[in-house]
Write a structure and sequence with these properties.
Length: 92
C-alpha cells in the first residue's frame, strides 16, 4: 500500500511538472528584495501565487528576462500600483 501511494504521488508530480512545461509559465522558486526599478521594462507584471515549489512572487520584465521579486518589497509595491496592466499567473 505504501509503494502504491508513493508511486501515485510521483506520477502526480510528473504530470504537474509536464503541465507547467507545456504552458511555459514561469515558476519562481526564490525572490529578491533588491530594488530593480530602473531595470524593469514594460507596463505589466505577473502575480504568482504560492503553489507546490513555486513561491509567492511578483514577476517583472527586464531587458535581461523576467525577475522574481518579493511582493513585500517596498519598491515592488509602488511599482505594482503604477502599472497600467495587471496579469495574474495562477501556477497550479
Amino acid at each position: 500500500v505504501f509503494s502504491l501511494g508513493l508511486l501515485f504521488l510521483l506520477i502526480c508530480y510528473l504530470v504537474v511538472f509536464m503541465f507547467r512545461l507545456i504552458l511555459n509559465r514561469p515558476c519562481c522558486v526564490e525572490v529578491t528584495m533588491r530594488n530593480l526599478t530602473s531595470r524593469v521594462v514594460g507596463n505589466q507584471y505577473y502575480q504568482q501565487r504560492r503553489r507546490s515549489y513555486c513561491v509567492e512572487a511578483l514577476i517583472f520584465n527586464t531587458n535581461e528576462g523576467q525577475v522574481c521579486v518579493n511582493p513585500q518589497a517596498s519598491w515592488a509595491k509602488l511599482r505594482k500600483l503604477s502599472q497600467q496592466k495587471h496579469v495574474k499567473y495562477d501556477i497550479i
